[in-house]
Amino acid sequence: MRMWGLSNSLGFTLLELLVTLILLSLLTAIGARFLIQPETSAALAKINTMLEQVRFQAMRENRRIDLNCEDIAVTAPRGENLTCQFNFFLPRTSKTLAFYPDGSSNGGHIIWRRQGKTDILSIDWLTGSVSHAHP
Fold first, then answer.
1. pTM (predicted TM-score)
2. CB under 8 Å, gap of 24 or more: what pairs does 70-73 form?
């Protein structure tokens, strides 16, 4: 680049280098979020699939099936914080999710906290369906 007042000066100015570094760092930060996202989506999809399978198993076998929070936590990546809140009609100390033969459940939430983000899987008590929410 040519600077005003200097003759035959080749190279980049300090301002141009700083702007380039800032743009590269922003693009890197944005790209890192998208690289982490698929792992998160895969883990949430795995938990969702497991819950749906247990629900359909309860309907198919015409019996109640209980699922512990520890069974669900196994599917989450290591170092992640997974909290379960089940049995809205019972004390919140219970860590068991129940699916009934009619497809319903006792309802609750699976709260997944990681790297400053929170995802919530909600299990509807009436239908037993699972939905994903971003608070």
1. 0.63
2. 70/95, 72/47, 72/97, 72/110
Q: According to the model, what pLDDT value does residue 102 have? A: 93
Rounded to whole angstroms, the Cα distance separating 108 from 59 reads 19
Which residues have a Cβ under 8 Å from the Cβ of 13 and sit 6 or more positions away? 1, 3
Give residues with Cβ within 8 angstroms of 78, minimum separation 6.
Answer: none
* 116 Cβ neighbours under 8 A, 6+ residues apart: none
Token reading at 12: 């980049």
**CATH number among 2.40.160.20, 3.30.430.20, 3.55.40.10, 1.20.1050.90, domain 14-133:** 3.55.40.10
Q: Identify the three-state secondary structure at position 86.
A: strand
Encoding tokens for residue 2? 């040519």
> Is the model's pLDDT at 64 over the cut of 60?
yes
Task: Look at residue 120 and tell me whether its pLDDT is greater than 60.
Answer: yes
CB distance 121 to 109 below 8 Å: yes
As given in the structure block, the two tokens for residue 28 are 């890197």
Ranges 5-14, 86-95, 101-110, most confident: 101-110
